[in-house]
Amino acid sequence: MKIRLANSEDFDALNDMAKKFYDHGNFSKMGWNYSEESFRQLVDVMIADPDLAVIFMAEEDGEPAASIGGFLSPWLLDLEQKQLTESWFWVHEEFRTSGIAKKLIKRFISYGKQVGVVNVHMISLNNDYQKALNRFYTGMGFSELETTFRLEV
User: Fold this and answer.
1) 67 pairs with which residues across the strands?
2) pTM passes above 0.70
């Protein structure tokens, strides 16, 4: 298994994972669309600006297995304190019991430490997998922070 920074040549694999993430999260039922063009623009920005964002790709035998992407931002009440917030995290189904998820998150956390963040945030959607993800994240040392509410307008 290899974990590395993503590059523009990874777009097709990242796009495939993003589509699966979109379907898996039932985002269409919430009225959110998926635009490949918009995702490409986002990935290009994230790859181009390491002060803004990071994307890691995990490969098994040279094949894409998982990815994680997140943004760096200051904390609300102290601009000197940076945080790294996951925007997506996807592991292909056939790799979900391989340990690749933990290794990928550990690399994400390590990157955060390297760039001076004080907090790393992972997000869990309210769906059939939420309880399992909560156990997974707390097992890695994360603590539950908040519940987010959404209103479609």
Assistant:
1) 57, 90
2) yes
Residues found in the chain = 153
DSSP code at position 151: -
Phi then psi dihedrals of residue 7, to 5 deg: -135, 175
* Whether the Cβ atoms of residue 91 and residue 100 lie closer than 8 Å to each other: yes
pLDDT 10s digits, 61-100: 999 999 999 999 998 888 999 999 999 999 999 999 999 9
Do 30 and 152 meet the contact criterion of CB atoms below 8 Å apart?
A: yes
Query: Mind listing the domains of the chain with CATH numbers?
Result: 2-139 (3.40.630.30)
What is the side-by-side order of every strand in the sheet holding 78-91?
Answer: 2-5, 53-60, 63-75, 78-91, 117-121
